[in-house]
UniProtKB/TrEMBL annotation:
MF terms in GO: heme binding; iron ion binding; monooxygenase activity; oxidoreductase activity, acting on paired donors, with incorporation or reduction of molecular oxygen
Entry keyword Iron: yes
Domain of life of the native organism: Eukaryota
Record-given protein name: Cytochrome
Cofactor list: heme
GO biological process entries: alkaloid metabolic process; response to jasmonic acid
PANTHER family registered for this protein in UniProt: BULB-TYPE LECTIN DOMAIN-CONTAINING PROTEIN, CYTOCHROME P450 FAMILY MEMBER
Family to which the UniProt record says this protein belongs: Belongs to the cytochrome P450 family.
Primary location: membrane
Origin organism lineage: Eukaryota, Viridiplantae, Streptophyta, Embryophyta, Tracheophyta
Pfam family, one: p450
GO cellular component terms, A-Z: membrane
Segments crossing the lipid bilayer: 6-25
Cellular compartments annotated: Membrane
Length: 519
């Protein structure tokens, strides 16, 4: 009897082992081979599949090479530095190509109609699954799909309405005042000019803006939370360069442990702020005038209207949304500001035109109200051109869930699609021979005239999942730039090295040392 039982256990064990071995083999070899055949049959080209790694080793090498070579200061053709492997793949295989992201193929999508289609049909094209490590960083709306995404978007939308953002202007103004005062102090210590690396200041500014606007009076705690999240982000960047196997990116154990510790601390801190806020709101002691308050208010309304808790967010979900505000809104906006300042340093004529406009609308001091910010036409053109040449997010990614028809292509499930914002924004066939030159006049009659209604300019994404914070970001950036222009002229320092690099967003590798002159 015992012998039979032991045979049975061994037999079951062998079957389980065989199933896992088959799954592994299918994931690492058979499935990629099938996808490869299917894509090639439709005219797409790419390198032959290499077991498990695909093109990842070459990809990582090309990033290292690109990182080691700064550009000429006047070179705005930055795609080879930001998406080096994509640029090489296009040179080798043409625009209709794919890249092996490990065992998954990633097809480049260039055509304006196809990009619109992918971004609009959000139920067909999902975001690729987050890895457990990026999940620790932040989940929230940007990682949800279908009904859950729709429910969260409905609850979040009111908090980002322009009228609500108007209430946050004084908080943004306060943060900008702090920053320009520090610059004024630095200049006055040296006389009338000084050299300053503005990059860390702009990062601090956008971090403070999010802390203040998200957490209102609890912003000091918010700042601590975001500092911890910044540390986490550094580990995630490290992990993103390693191989991803079935749900895991590999990080040294010590780092993994630290990520989990931070996650626990951050959750406890946000939970504390939420509890305080809910108590104060219930007691009528505070208005819902910060992002968290508005989000909680909108959540209560939704639950009350349906009389059902399932139509609202849980506290855990609210925590995730708060974490996401920081990741989605901080670095993206500081990157927009830093490249705009670098471009204006190199183009003093546009800097002068922008200043003239700011002084005309606001004078050299005074309150910067929303109406005035909305009237800044030259400044808006400059920001659009900076977003075109230096999009903070270089590419969007989606994945087919089932067999899907995209234009002429029949795509099987499990194919990744990359919409390379940076490459489309620099495409000569779309923008002309001067595509990589700074010419804000392209946007003199607005975005839809500049793009002829095509999906060729999409720094904030598009379709129903378009960036929820785009108005917030543009208002913040306009306020900051207007206050800088009111007080200083600026130029590149001789020590500036032009080296845009992709670190989740497009960042200046060696900072942005500028020479500031007090006006
Ligand atoms: C210049 C600044 C910004 C840029 C260039 C930018 C860019 C983007 C892009 C390209 C997407 C779409 C991602 C995709 O479809 O895969 C996105 C989504 C998102 N952004 Fe922004 N963003 C900026 C500022 C902000 C700010 C300030 C916030 C919030 C405070 C924010 C919150 C979000 C959220 C929550 C999503 C996800 C929306 C959804 O999935 O429904 N962003 N952003």
């Amino acid at each position: 009897m015992e012998i039979v039982a032991s045979y049975l256990v061994s037999f079951l064990f062998a079957i389980i082992l065989a199933i896992y071995a088959w799954r592994l083999l299918d994931w690492a070899w058979f499935r990629p081979r099938k996808l490869d055949k299917c894509l090639r049959k439709q005219g797409l080209k790419g390198n032959s599949y290499k077991l498990i790694f695909g093109d990842l080793k070459e990809l990582s090498k090309s990033f290292e090479v690109a990182k080691s070579k700064p550009l000429n200061v006047s070179d705005d053709d930055i795609s080879p530095k930001i998406l080096p492997y994509f640029v090489e793949a296009i040179k080798k295989h043409g625009k209709n190509c794919f890249i092996w992201f490990g065992p998954k193929p990633m097809v480049l999508v260039w055509d304006s109609e196809a990009i619109r289609d992918v971004l609009n049909k959000y139920a067909l094209y999902h975001k690729p699954d987050s890895t457990p490590i990026t999940k620790l960083l932040a989940q929230g709306i940007s990682s949800y799909e279908e009904d859950k995404w729709a429910m969260h978007r409905k609850i979040l939308n009111p908090a980002f309405h322009v009228e609500k953002i108007k209430n946050m202007l004084s908080a943004v103004h306060l943060c900008c005042t702090e920053m320009v005062s520090q610059w004024e102090e630095a200049v006055s210590m040296k006389g009338t000019s000084c050299e300053l690396d503005v990059w860390p200041y702009l990062q601090r500014l956008t971090s403070d803006v999010i802390s203040r606007t998200a957490f209102g009076s609890n912003y000091e705690e918010g700042r601590k939370i975001f500092e911890l999240q910044k540390e986490q982000a550094e580990y995630v960047i490290e992990a993103s360069r390693t191989l991803y196997i079935r749900g895991w990116r590999f990080l040294p154990t010590k780092r993994n442990r630290r990520m989990k510790e931070i996650d626990k601390d951050v959750q406890a801190m946000i939970r504390g702020i939420i509890d305080k806020k809910v108590k104060a709101m219930k007691a009528g002691e505070t208005n819902a005038d910060d992002l968290l308050g508005m989000l909680l208010e909108s959540n209560f309304t939704e639950i009350e209207q349906h009389g059902n808790q399932d139509f609202g967010m849980t506290t855990r979900e609210v925590i995730e949304e708060c974490k996401l505000f920081y990741f989605a809104g901080q670095e993206t906006t500081s990157v927009l500001l830093v490249w705009t300042m670098i471009l204006l340093s190199r183009h003093p004529d546009w800097q002068a035109r922008a200043r003239e406009e700011v002084l005309q609308v606001f004078g050299d001091d005074g309150t910067l109200e929303l109406d005035g910010l909305n009237r800044l036409k030259i400044v808006t053109m400059i920001f659009h051109e900076a977003l075109r040449l230096y999009p903070p997010i270089e590419a969007l990614c989606r994945m087919t869930k089932t067999k899907t028809k995209l234009g002429e292509l029949n795509l099987p499930a499990g194919v990744m699609l990359s919409m390379p914002i940076m490459l489309v924004h620099h495409d000569k066939e779309i923008w002309g021979e001067d595509a990589s030159e700074f010419k804000p006049e392209r946007f003199s009659e607005g975005v839809s005239k500049a793009t002829k209604g095509q999906m060729t300019f999409f720094p904030f994404g598009g379709g129903p999942r378009i960036c929820i914070g785009q108005n917030f970001a543009m208002i913040e950036a306009k306020m900051a730039l207007a206050m800088i222009l009111q007080r200083f002229t600026f130029e590149l320092s001789p020590s500036y090295t032009h080296a845009p690099q992709p670190v989740i967003t497009t960042q200046p590798q060696y900072g942005a040392p500028l020479v500031l002159h007090r006006l």
